[in-house]
Amino acid sequence: MVKRMVSDWLVPFGRPMFHKPKEWAKNLKPGSLSAELEDHPEHLEEAIDRSQAALLGEQNLGDGYWCGPLRADTTLESDTIMLLHFLGRQDSPKIKRFARFILSQQLPDGGWPIFRNGPADISATVKAYWALKFAGHNAEEPALVKARERIRALGGIHRVNTYSKFYMAIFGQYDWRGVPTILPELMLFPNWFYFNIYQMSAWTRSIVVPLSIVWADSPQKTCPENARLDELFPDERRWAPLKDCMPPHSFFSWTNFFLWWDRGLKTIEGHGGHWIRTWALKLAEDWMLEHLKGSDGLGAIFPGIVNSIMAMKCLGYSDDDPRLVKQIGVLEGLELDHGAALEMQPCLSPIWDTAIAMIALAESGLNRDHPALVKAVEWVLSCEIRRPGDWRVTNNVGSVGGWAFEFRNDFYPDIDDTAMVMLALRHVHLEEPLALAREKACLRGLHWLLSMQSSKGGWAAFDKDNTKYIFTKIPFADHNAIIDPPTADITARVLEFLGYIGYDDSYGCVRSAIDFLRKEQETDGSWYGRWSVNYIYGTWQVLRGLAAIGEDMRQPYVQKAAEWLKSVQLPDGGWGETCLTYNDPSKKGTGPATPSQTAWAVMGLMAAGLGSDPAVLRGIEYLISTQRPDGTWDETEFTGTGFPKVFYLEYTMYRNYFPLLALGQYRAAHYDRAWNDDGSQAPETAPAGVP
User: Fold this and answer.
1) How far apart are CA 549 and CA 434, in angstroms?
2) What is the model's pLDDT at position 33?
3) 433: cis peptide before it, omega within 30°?
């Protein structure tokens, strides 16, 4: 314990990357307004008050956190039905309830999308079709007939992704020859080897390691006759060569290289030394069990949890083994009960939701010592991760610290959540000893963030320099996120925190981060948003980060970004963009207006110094006019991103705390213009842009 404390506080000192502003700790404490806010538009004040009340009403009063439902597509419910059959629980009453939810999400054309209002997706549609058959639906029912037609129109069953084929092969509905090879021997590659499991993204490790155990066992579960998929195949063949399912590629390409490897691995499967396979399986099992400690399931995400449950059964764990029972309990904790129907969440988002809710409440004028904020700080500090995780493999410098996304996920603190938490902590007035606890936690978090900066100057989500792009050509990498490169949105979030505690471009970490952002800017001035949809999100976050760090916001590249935001404002005053922009960037900035994306655009323009621009006023009016009487907003689109082009999220609190944050910042900008620094009232002039 003493050694760890000394390491956390002293080891970073003396290294240039850990140099900090002298007043950094003082800047963790919230400032105070020098005068009362007066003479604000009545409807703006009322909108803020209603929104604050609604958000406070969603707080968990016992612990102090916020955690809104997190929604995704129906592949989660489909996979859960498959898993229940895998476990021999085909009589579970939950199956029909999951099936009802799946049916409720079917599109008029017969398919299922991967985001609300999106087009049918082949993998989601095949999985839904199969799940409904598992649940007892007949292939000749109108819903399934339409689904078959849509599957054929989308290219047929062979076009589904790796993990769909994997699950179908387990039940004998797809030949293992057509499934990308995932060998447990991956575990034998040392960490210094060019390719090892730590060169894959954190979420991929949680998916692939247990799947490698399943691959080695290649279980053959009996598929109920009513759930067979024979009618989906165009001929007698129950598999297609991987080369026919991959994107177009030349003969001399990394894609072809990995396809040759896959064929070779399948050829030698079962012919190597038995002791090698035994050793590899033991390493995979030990890795999986170790990573279950201090975590709500493997990686605390749905696919990791499902795959680890199947892996345990393949390893011979009994149904009453405490480790297996716990994982099934964690999976059940992701259920959303709608009465007749059941929905699954991909994971839980308490740290993320709590941090942003705190920021929105504080920046919209809630007293900085409000009990709700203090309670939230206590809970957030209790969630700090105080053990090294997978990130330590490529970073042996940073001190242990930081926060994850979920309730417990100790091996995977992430940069985005850690920065957001520290942005929230600085907003709350605390008495000792809680104030000292905040300072210590933020010191550890700051050192960890600084140590995680990539060689390119940016920050990624979970790992440092996880950027070997050739691995994206591996056949099982079709979830489009096998690596974790630095991104503009996370880099800007870190810059925002650094700026607020006193950093500027005199620090090397800031200069290299700004250079990274400038290189990442699109030709039209926007920035790509990796973790939310999409260019509106990325552009807002970068502008906010640049403003916080003290960048001159009058520079042409900054104003070009602001002009892009203005150019995509919709006639109703809002902003909107759909998940389709990840497949087709020409659609960027187009889509129905949403409250979260409108809030991002408004805040981006204000960060760029355009708080008085008519576009901002129209955006504020849109938010006020679309607010519900209970202080919340409706949002029709998914605005969160899991894996671009593959998996999207609906953060159900985005629609509420981001508009509150935008309204609060707008009011604060009005305050800044209406009062002098000494607290006296400024001359009686109507600030531009105030309704």
Assistant:
1) 27
2) 45
3) yes
CB of 278 closer than 8 Å to CB of 188: no
What pLDDT does 21 receive?
A: 83
* Residue 34: predicted pLDDT: 37
| Regions in the chain scoring below 70 on pLDDT | 1-14, 31-42, 249, 251-252, 258-259, 261-262, 265-266, 268, 270-273, 671-691
Cα separation, 484 vs 490, in Å, equals 12
How would you write 14-49 as a 3-class SS string?
CCHHHCCCCCCCHHHCCCCCCCCCCCCCHHHHHHHH
* DSSP letter assigned to residue 644: T
Q: Please give the pLDDT value at position 32.
A: 52
What beta strand segments (E) does 38-84 contain? 70-71
Catalytic residue, chosen from 8, 262, 414, 416, is 416
Question: What is the number of other CB atoms lying within 10 angstroms of the CB of residue 670?
Answer: 20
pLDDT value of residue 478: 79
Q: Look up residue 445 and give its amino acid.
A: G
* Residue 286 contacts residue 323 (beta carbons within 8 Å): no
pLDDT of 18? 78
Distance CA 206, CA 391 (A): 14
CB 521 within 8 A of CB 561: yes
Element (H, E) at 493: helix 488-500
Burial class (CB in 10 A: 0-12, 13-18, 19+), 41: middle
Task: Give the sheet arrangement for strand 70-71, strand by strand.
Answer: 70-71, 647-651, 640-643
Q: Structural domains in the chain?
A: 1-30+64-68+349-456 (1.50.10.20), 34-62+521-674 (1.50.10.20), 71-344 (1.50.10.20)
pLDDT at 5: 47
Name the helix (H) or strand (E) containing 124.
helix 122-134
Q: Is 244 a catalytic residue?
A: no
